[in-house]
């Protein structure tokens, strides 16, 4: 159900065309042809595998297919006319015809359902939603029946699929029979507690249910309660019988859904005579044979669908599955070797998992759009769920590991670079007409058979009876055996829908192996034109895709230096680009280079080269002129070195991987007069790149390259060092040593190479590019910088660099200039072993703060890259142990620093803290949550026990409470510098939600049932409500002021498994609402509050609070209604205001429900408003109010961007960008027939804009914003993410009656 795995990630720079094997040609790659089965799959749009499985089943139902093709343009219309308002075009059957024709006739691996889903009225997001295939089966057939009203095909769904059952109740006293007939499209059969399909049908249509004891039946003829028997029978059998298996059930003990995975068998042929009302017919009248099984893999909340289908007309080319073609002994040996040799899979390592997935395939490669499914099969979890957070999209992961993975077959498959697919097993691509991986080689008789076109008939060959079963899994189509169906009787991957056909239905001989049978001529012509276009695209792509770009490096432009080839002239790169056909031979390539270099004399050797940090290095030389460039391993961007094969500029060149040059950083002492300048340079580089990469203070560095096969003694000789000199490598030993080498410690350690290492090569010593090599002469130890202790040399940082800068930052109010004057900086001499308390003491003394602030406490704090103060450092630790680097800045701030056993925490009371507004506290790590809470309450002067602590979640909002009050902070893994929120109220019970309830009161028209009584609490909390579309503030009477207030009425505690109806019922039991009387809960509207804004209306009386995403601590608001309301998922409640003609104000607002389920365009809203006011839609001008900005955004028909993928215009939707209409938004309306003023801005809006400008000016000048700024809470509310509503499956059909 995951579709093309890379479709959504190509925008991030990952292309499905191999960047190594060929020159990338952009997005012009044609779709690959059909595979060996000669059948076409269907592309997954992201979550449409349920649709693909059903469509393939209908396609391989010949009678359904032919009935559909029998409908002509005279009845269905023409797709080209669908945008004409007067034309009646039946789009759904026309698109289904086109899709079926493409699946049967067009030579492509998979077809797209985009046109069909567009005809359903689905938007782009619908393709990623998962739905139930049984539900789709009913909805699709209903849509087709409605689409075909008035045509000759209006009854074909009914004729093929509709059957009849009859329910009978027989009175045991008088024998009276009461019957009721019911039609069915499919039979829903039980799975729970049943072992087979026959048993389930027996329970449904043979077993009788007795009405006796306390459960008697009232007989109409006896006119009294009697004993009776109830039974059901099949009265009319359809030609095609669909069985829907009830795999999903609900556990009322655990209150959760689950999937029945037990064994449930079903026959390939079934006789329904025992279950029918009339049983006197022939056996053939009741016998059905299985021809399709739709399989569901996964759980009850998601998974993947695919179908096992029997190819009745034998349109495909069935071959025995690969496993069946191998001898049994070979399989057994392979399994034993796999058990012994296959390493244990590391499921937390994506590289290991993907490598194992690809390696286990027989072809050593995997289709890109199947990689996600195979990954889930391997580890039981998807990439997005397990790895995406840490490793990013899978496309980028493969791209960043191009040394392991390789895209082959024109980018349709991914293989391992160390084990590319063999010529026999790799499927052919557009650029490779045969299965031979060498494009220049002709097909041989021993190779696999050539691909068949969609209109070609395969050669007849003996096949087993009952073959022609295929697994149609989105784009992939593979042959299976009939016996494989038994594997789907049980497990997480099991049968979900069964399709049977009567054995009486025989196919004519001319339909066999004939995909064009009964397809209209215009569709055949359309398919032929598409095939011609595809063939042309493949020919062009094959020619361009077989061209590789080679980089030629000519020997006269290079010299051998530092173990590698360097260009003679530094300003030139010394390479020439050559475009060459990779199907030609190496001899042809050599000849082409000869023709380019007319002055070349003597032999010419072509050697594969690679540019390394040390320079250009040579590997293998191309010696066989008869092989193709592709077979020789030459890909695009390959470097070739052109030389005589022996020497370059008189110097012998060593080739091969063992002689790869290594670029080392040679470090020497530098203690001259310019040490200070050198130190400054070293400090700057070291802070950006790490320990001693650039030599470090007191050291100078030089990059030198050496051949990897050179010994360490040869390196010393090449450096011109005397024999008594020492060569040292950075010491990477124990943890303690690593700390000593850190920048905070002021010293670094180096290990001296022993004499035996002088005869070992750089490769043997595992030296790699960038490694540092310290060269010391004996007299170097005379200075205080270098100390030899055994085989370890310690390099001590010069005293010039042993300091910390301390900046005093007092809490001063005033202008910026005054603050700058108050800040003081001082350099304090420091070492890595110095305690931070000593650093602070020296800074206080040198800044003379003891006299100015007698008795004041100070602490040291680090500053991050944004200038934000970090938590105070523990002064009991040394500079090194606290992780403070020398030559950095610490800030001296008022306050105490924590000890090693304490935590420094931020906290706030009630709400999410604003930047810089948190309070600070220091507590022991061992103190409990309850003790920490008490300390925080004491710090702010609050009393009582009705408080609890909450953490901030990942998006810096108030998160889950700390439930374990007796647990210590260290046990809960609360870290230094974390922010906690002190929240009012007791801790909610586990599994229960505690929510504050507010009452919506309209000050203009307070509903009598919700009158404020004097019986409530003495102190009542009031808030003025801000709806989504209203400006906070008082308004003139006619200017649209929607003045209302919220009154707190208490709190409710309720289970998160309770429904919205339960919540409404419990709210009505609050004492403050005891006088409220509503007929049903439908007369009450519940809003969710965010800040002071009515954010969204809660919908669905039977939806649980968990599904409504309500959490403990949420605020809800109840509003009484004058009429019952049950809003749908896409019904939007809007506040509409009609402008007063000639004036800059509005009439009082009204509420209107706009149904956007079928059409969410501006035209739909305008039509709805026109019907509400009784005006013409063309006379209305609309705008949405944005209260935070005090502006109006005019709503008109606009043109959105064209999708780069689908190359078509998206549907205009007011629910999406840029308007995002939601509940409570205000829509302003102008009647242009009587109002010439097209502006929507009111005087109040102008005043609001002026306030915003003044506030912005104050912030620009550094002043503090006014405390009464109303845009603050509104802006904060807008930052909350809007949740995507759940949408039910539906298909929109036009009216054709």
Automatic annotation (TrEMBL):
Residues 420-431 have a biased composition (Pro residues). Residues 730-740, 1275-1286 have a biased composition (Basic and acidic residues). Keywords: Hydrolase. Residues 40-503 form the USP domain. The keyword Hydrolase applies. Residues 1-39, 415-468, 730-754, 1254-1297 are annotated as: Disordered. GO terms for molecular function: cysteine-type deubiquitinase activity. One of its GO terms (biological process) is protein deubiquitination. One of its GO terms (cellular component) is cytosol. Signal peptide: none annotated. InterPro entries: Papain-like_cys_pep_sf, Peptidase_C19, Peptidase_C19_UCH, UBL_USP40, USP, USP_CS. The keyword tRNA processing does not apply. Residues 1-13 have a biased composition (Acidic residues). SUPFAM superfamilies: Cysteine proteinases. This is Ubiquitin carboxyl-terminal hydrolase 40 isoform X1. It comes from Stegastes partitus. The lineage of its organism: Eukaryota, Metazoa, Chordata, Craniata, Vertebrata.
């Amino acid at each position: 159900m995951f579709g093309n795995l890379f479709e959504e990630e190509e925008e991030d720079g990952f292309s499905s065309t191999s960047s190594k094997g060929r020159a990338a040609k952009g997005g012009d790659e044609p779709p690959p042809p059909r595979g060996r089965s000669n059948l076409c799959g269907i592309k997954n749009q992201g979550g449409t595998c349920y649709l693909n499985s059903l469509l393939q089943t209908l396609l391989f139902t010949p009678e359904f297919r032919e009935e559909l093709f029998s409908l002509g343009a005279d009845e269905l219309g023409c797709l080209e006319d669908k945008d004409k308002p007067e034309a009646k075009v039946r789009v759904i059957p026309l698109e289904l015809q086109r899709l079926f024709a493409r699946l049967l006739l067009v030579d492509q691996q998979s077809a797209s359902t985009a046109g069909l889903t567009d005809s359903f009225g689905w938007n782009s997001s619908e393709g990623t939603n998962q739905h139930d295939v049984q539900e789709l089966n009913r909805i699709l057939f209903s849509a087709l029946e409605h689409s075909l009203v008035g045509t000759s095909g209006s009854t074909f769904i009914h004729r093929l699929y509709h059957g009849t059952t009859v329910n009978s109740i027989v009175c045991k006293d008088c024998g009276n029979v009461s019957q009721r007939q019911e039609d069915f499209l499919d039979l829903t059969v039980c799975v729970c507690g049943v072992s087979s399909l026959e048993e389930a049908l027996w329970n449904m249509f043979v077993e009788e249910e007795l009405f006796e004891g306390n459960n008697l039946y009232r007989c109409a003829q006896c006119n009294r309660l009697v004993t009776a028997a109830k039974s059901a029978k099949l009265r009319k059998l359809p030609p095609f019988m669909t069985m829907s298996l009830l795999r999903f059930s609900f556990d009322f003990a655990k209150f959760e859904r689950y999937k029945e995975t037990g064994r449930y068998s079903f026959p390939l042929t079934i006789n329904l005579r025992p279950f029918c009302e009339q049983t006197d017919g022939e056996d053939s009248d009741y016998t059905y044979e299985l021809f399709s099984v739709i399989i569901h893999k996964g759980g009850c909340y998601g998974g993947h669908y695919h179908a096992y289908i029997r190819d009745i007309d034998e349109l495909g080319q069935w071959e025995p599955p690969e496993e069946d073609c191998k001898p049994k002994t070979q399989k057994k040996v392979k399994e034993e070797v796999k058990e012994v040799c296959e390493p244990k899979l590391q499921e937390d390592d994506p590289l290991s998992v993907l490598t194992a997935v690809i390696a286990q395939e027989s072809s050593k490669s995997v289709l890109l759009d199947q990689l996600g499914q195979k990954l889930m099969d391997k580890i039981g979890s998807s990439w997005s769920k397990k790895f995406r957070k840490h490793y990013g999209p899978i496309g980028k992961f493969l791209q960043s590991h191009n040394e392991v993975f390789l895209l082959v077959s024109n980018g349709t498959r991914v293989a391992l670079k160390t084990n590319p697919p063999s010529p026999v097993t790799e499927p052919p691509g557009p650029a490779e007409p045969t299965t031979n991986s060498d494009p220049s080689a002709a097909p041989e008789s021993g190779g696999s058979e050539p691909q068949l076109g969609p209109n070609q008939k395969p050669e007849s060959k003996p096949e087993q009876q009952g073959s022609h079963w295929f697994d149609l899994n989105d784009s992939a189509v593979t042959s299976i055996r009939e016996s494989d169906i038994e594997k789907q009787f049980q497990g997480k991957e099991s049968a979900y829908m069964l399709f049977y056909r009567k054995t009486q239905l025989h196919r004519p001989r001319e339909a066999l192996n004939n995909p064009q049978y009964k397809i209209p001529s215009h569709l055949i012509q359309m398919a032929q034109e598409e095939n011609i276009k595809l063939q042309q695209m493949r020919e062009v792509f094959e020619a361009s895709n077989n061209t590789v770009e080679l980089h030629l490096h000519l020997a006269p432009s290079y010299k051998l230096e530092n173990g590698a080839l360097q260009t003679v002239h530094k300003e030139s790169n010394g390479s020439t680009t050559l475009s060459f056909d990779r199907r030609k031979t190496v001899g042809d390539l050599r000849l082409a280079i000869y023709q380019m270099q007319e002055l070349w004399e003597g032999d010419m050797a072509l050697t594969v080269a690679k540019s390394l940090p040390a320079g250009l290095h040579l590997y293998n030389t191309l010696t066989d002129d008869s092989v193709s460039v592709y077979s020789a391993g030459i890909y695009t961007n390959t470097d070739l070195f052109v030389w005589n094969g022996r020497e370059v500029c008189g110097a012998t060149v060593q080739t091969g991987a063992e002689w790869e040059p290594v670029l080392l950083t040679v470090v020497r002492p530098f203690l001259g007069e310019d040490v200070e300048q050198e130190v400054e340079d070293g400090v700057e580089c070291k802070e950006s790149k790490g320990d001693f990469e650039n030599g470090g203070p007191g050291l100078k560095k030089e990059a030198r390259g050496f051949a990897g096969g050179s010994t360490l003694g040869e390196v010393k000789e090449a450096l011109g060092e005397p024999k008594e000199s020492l060569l040292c490598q950075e010491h990477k030993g124990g943890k303690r040593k690593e700390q000593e080498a850190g920048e905070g410690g002021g010293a670094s350690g180096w290990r001296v190479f022993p004499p035996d290492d002088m005869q070992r090569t750089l490769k043997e010593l595992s030296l790699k590019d960038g490694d540092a090599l310290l060269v010391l002469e004996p007299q170097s130890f005379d200075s205080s910088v270098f100390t030899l202790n055994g085989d370890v040399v310690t390099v001590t940082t010069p005293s010039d660099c042993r300091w910390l800068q301390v900046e005093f930052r007092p809490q001063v109010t005033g202008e910026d200039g005054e603050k700058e004057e108050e800040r003081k900086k001082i350099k304090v001499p420091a070492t890595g072993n110095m305690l931070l308390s000593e650093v602070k003491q020296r800074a206080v003394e040198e800044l003379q703060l003891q006299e100015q602030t007698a008795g004041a406490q100070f602490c040291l704090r680090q500053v991050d890259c944004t200038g934000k103060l970090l938590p105070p450092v523990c002064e009991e630790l040394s500079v090194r142990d606290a992780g403070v680097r020398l030559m950095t800045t610490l800030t001296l701030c008022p306050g105490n620093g924590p000890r090693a056993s304490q935590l420094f925490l931020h906290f706030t009371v009630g709400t999410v803290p604003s930047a810089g507004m948190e309070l600070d506290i220091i507590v022991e790590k061992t103190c409990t949550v309850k003790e920490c809470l008490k300390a925080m309450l004491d710090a702010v002067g609050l009393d009582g026990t009705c408080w609890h602590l909450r953490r901030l979640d990942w998006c810096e909002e108030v998160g889950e409470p700390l439930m374990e009050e007796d647990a210590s902070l260290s046990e809960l893994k609360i870290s230094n510098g974390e922010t906690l929120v002190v929240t009012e109220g007791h801790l909610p019970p586990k599994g229960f939600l505690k929510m504050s309830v507010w009452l919506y009161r309209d000050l203009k028209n307070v509903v009598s049932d919700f009158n404020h009584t004097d019986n409530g609490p003495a102190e009542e909390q009031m808030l003025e409500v801000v709806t989504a579309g209203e400006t906070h503030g008082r308004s003139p009477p006619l200017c649209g002021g929607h003045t209302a207030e919220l009154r707190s009425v208490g709190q409710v505690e309720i289970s998160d498994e309770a429904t919205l109806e339960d919540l409404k019922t419990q709210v009505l039991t609050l004492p403050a609402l005891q006088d409220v009387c509503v007929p049903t809960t439908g007369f009450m509207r519940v809003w969710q509050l965010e800040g002071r804004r009515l954010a969204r209306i809660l919908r669905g009386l039977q939806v649980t609070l968990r599904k409504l995403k309500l959490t403990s601590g949420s605020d809800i608001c109840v509003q009484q209604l004058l009429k019952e309301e049950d809003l749908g998922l896409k019904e939007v409640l809007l506040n509409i205001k009609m402008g007063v003609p000639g004036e800059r104000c509005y009439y009082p607002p009204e509420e209107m429900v706009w149904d956007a389920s079928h059409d969410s365009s501006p035209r739909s809203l305008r039509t709805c408003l026109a019907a509400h006011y009784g005006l013409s839609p063309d006379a209305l001008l609309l705008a949405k109010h944005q209260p935070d900005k005090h502006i109006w955004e005019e709503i008109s028909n606009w043109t959105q961007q064209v999708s780069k993928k689908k190359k078509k215009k998206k549907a205009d939707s007011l629910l999406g960008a840029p308007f995002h209409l939601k509940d409570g938004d205000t829509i302003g309306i102008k009647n242009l027939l009587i109002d010439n003023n097209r502006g929507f801005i009111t005087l109040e809006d102008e005043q609001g804009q002026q306030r915003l400008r003044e506030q912005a000016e104050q912030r620009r000048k550094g002043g503090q914003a006014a405390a009464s700024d109303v845009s603050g809470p509104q802006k904060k509310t807008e930052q909350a993410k809007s949740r995507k509503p759940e949408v039910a499956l539906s298909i929109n059909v036009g009216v054709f009656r």
